[in-house]
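Encode chain A's predicted structure.
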Amino acid sequence: MALINCPECSKRVSDQSVACPNCGFPITKLSPFRAVPPPLPRQDSTNSEADLLVRKPQVSKPQKKAKSSKLPDFFAALFIIFLIYQLATCSDDETQASPQIEDSLQVQDSLIDSELTQIPMLLSGSGEDGRYFLISHFTSYGLENIAYVRRGNESDVYGSMQIDCLENEMRKSSSGNLEALKTAKMGDWVTPAPDWTDQDIVNFICEKQSVPEQSQLNTERNAVEEPVSTSETSVSIPMSDSFENGRYFLTSHTIDNGVENIEYIREGDDNTSYAKMEIKCSDNQIRIYSADNFDALQSANMGDWFTPTPDWTDQDIVNFICSK
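Encoded structure for chain A:
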C-alpha cells in the first residue's frame, strides 16, 4: 500500500482506497493492481436478521397502504350507486302513481254525475245549472219526498225536501253529509221564493208526477184502510222531535162549533196507527182516541178533555192545527 496524491484535490490518499475521502474522486481507476472486489452473495430465504431489517422498508409498506386506501373507496362507490338506484326507483313509482290517483278521482266524479239525475236550474240562473242532482224520490200521502245534492267548487251540500205540489209549498233541511239527513229536522212549510233554486226543484219534481203514480198511491192507501179524500190531500204534520218528524199525516180536518175535528195517521217503522182528535184552540184543550185500524175510529170514545203535555206529539199537532 502506498500514499498517492488525489488528482482532484491533491490530498494524500492510500492507493487502496476506493475513493478520495476528501472529494470523493475514484481512486481504483488509478491503481491497475487493485483487485476487483468479489460479487455480493445471492440473497435467499436464509438471509440474516440484519439484512431483513434493512430490506423490509423497501418492499411491503407502500403496497399495504395502497390496498387499505382502496377498499373504503370501493364500498363508498357501491353505496352511492345503491342510493342513486333507490332514488330513481322511488321517483318512477311516484310518477306512475299520480296519474292513477287522478284517474280514480275522475272516474268517481263521473260516476256520481252519471248515476244521478240532474235537476235543471231554469229560474235561478246559469250559475246554478249543472250543480244540483236528485238522489232519491218517493211519494207518500200526496207529498213528494226527495233527497238531493248541490255540488260546489269546494264541498258538496246535501238536502232533503217535502213538496206539496198542489199548494206549491215545501219544507226542507240541509247538511254537509248525506247521513245526517236521516235525523235532520224539517223547517216550516213555506212557499218557495220565485227565481230561486227551491222553486226550480219544486217545478222539476212536480212536473215529473204522472197519473199512474197517483193511481198507484190511491191503491196503496186503500189497502191500509186509509180514507181517500178527493177534496183534501194528506199533509205532513211537523214534529219538534226529529225522530217523530215525517211520521204524522193529516187525513181530514173539519170545524164544528169552534172545535177542530181532525183525523191523522202515524206511520211507524213496523206498523201504522190511526187517531182522531178534538181541539179547543182557545183553551189549548184536547181529547183523543187512537187505534190500529181506521174503522175503529168510527165508534171511538173520545174521553175527557185535558191539556197536552208540552214538547210532546199531541202539542205539536195542536200547534199545527191552531196556527193554520
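The CA atoms of residues 90 and 302 lie 80 Å apart.
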